[in-house]
Amino acid sequence: MEVKDGATQESLRSTVSPAPLAADARSADDRDLPSRTDVLARALSQPFGGPVGRHALIGRTRFFTPLRVMLVIAVIFLSLGYTSKAACLVTTGTGTADQKVANWQNQRAYYELCYSDTVPLYTAELLNLGKFPYKSSWIEKDSEGRPQKQFDGNVAVRYMEYPVITGIYQYLSMAVAKSYSALSRLVPVPSIAEVVMFFNISAFGLALAWLATVWATSQLAGRRIWDAALVAGSPIVIFQIFTNFDALATAFATGALLAWARRRPVLAGALIGLGVAAKLYPILLLIPLALLGLRTGRLREVGKTAAAAFVTWLVVNLPIMVMFPRGWSEFFRLNARRGDDMDSLYNVVKSYTNWQGFDTGLGLWEPPTILNAVVFVLFATCCVGIGYIVLTAPRRPRLAQVAFLVVALFLLTNKVWSPQFSLWLVPLAVLALPHRRVLLAWMTIDALVWVPRMLFLYGEENRGLPEQWFTTTVLLRDIAVMALCALVIRQIYRPELDLVRYRGRIDDPSGGVFNRAADNPPAWLPKWLRPPEKETPIPPPEERPAAILNA
Fold first, then answer.
1. C-alpha to C-alpha distance for 283 and 303, rounded to whole angstroms
2. Sign of CA pseudo-dihedral 184, 188, 193, 198
3. What is the CB-side half-sphere exposure of residue 377 using CA atoms within 13 A?
4. Which of 80, 92, 286, 487 would give a disulfide with 103, using CB separation of 3.0 to 4.6 Å?
5. In a 10 Å sphere around its CB, with 0-12 CB exposed, 13-18 middle and 19+ buried, how is residue 295 labelled?
6. What pLDDT is attached to residue 542?
């Protein structure tokens, strides 16, 4: 082409790339781009150059990939989580590191909103003495230091109250903390209270577990990889990530879903077994797997997962179970004898009425048998309802949708909903209902429950808050979770509204063997529990746009 004048030359420059084109010019154009499709994301993108260009090559960034950006976001929120506990991590006292303590004077943990179970557990469970969990025990005492007797007349003896992996995790963190204390007596390093170092070491591992949760969620999200940013930047992380040890189980549970999505049922079962050995809730994932397996006739794979979960759990638990059976079973005894927790719906009802609860006049550690039965019946009823939805919906629900419903209804009907339990829901909610503003509204409400909770525990006589300020926010949190459940059920019955399914072009990115599987329920299933004969058709793979997933 001959260039005759400056105007023509300028026109040519405006239509030709100033740099050589990439060798691979493919573009993941089917990836969801929040800066284009979401009002909130569009506004947040303005300081960084605004929405991605219409002619940009998607999935070609070499360094700032979506996953790396989300891990940076996660590190920021984990840092905020550590900062929220920092006021309770001030070393005080004199002497060596094992003689110093964290400053919790004058109920500081409540009015500074920095409470964490990790700090009091270090002394309460004899970790400060270097005792091995499950082997060592202690006698529960009253406020005057006298041994207490439980309802059956026996002395109240306590053991480590956590499942094996969580208990061993605390023991190993203690061992590292004590090693640092010994080092501080030999070399000039900062002398930090041993309990504070124990918290720091535990928090580091929990942070890694949450980063693993973010990674697994991003892989499960498929073309909507940016949805995992809500896991990385959840407001719940700020207050709850270091309140207890639940991030361990969350990482195992999300990893199990990823293994299932990649059609590795044995690995999925092994991760579920490890999760149950850290916290009981990952066993709930077997319920949605069984229901979807029943609808699709893929129960063989589900059976492999369940068997692997049991074997893994048994292998992890067996040594402690055999050597220290009394200490090993403490976790199960504790859960059987706990009453309705202050964060439960049962306590909300008690707060607003004169109702005394299902079980009254119980002795120390006497199991609330009526409450336990009510909790079991309510959750079982919810599971039956979920099963009916899964088996009869016009189109098979996605695994994440069913898993979210099961875990959410378990928490709503359970007698205990400790604040950190909300972390269980975060990755499941993001995968089940990726509506960012709706999820952020729920997460914000859930996170803010922590403030009136702490101020209520601080005491109204200390200028704290009355009980009903706290129970009102609990009720709002529960209503928000119920609303999420309703939205998920609505999208199950109206799959065209499901953003994950991309207007019907995608089936179930996390479904594994369920993905694109036809309905094939067993012959013995009654007709009223079978899916409609005319199921919503799933397009063949070649009709779906190809995607380049850049993680």
1. 13
2. negative
3. 6
4. 92
5. buried
6. 39
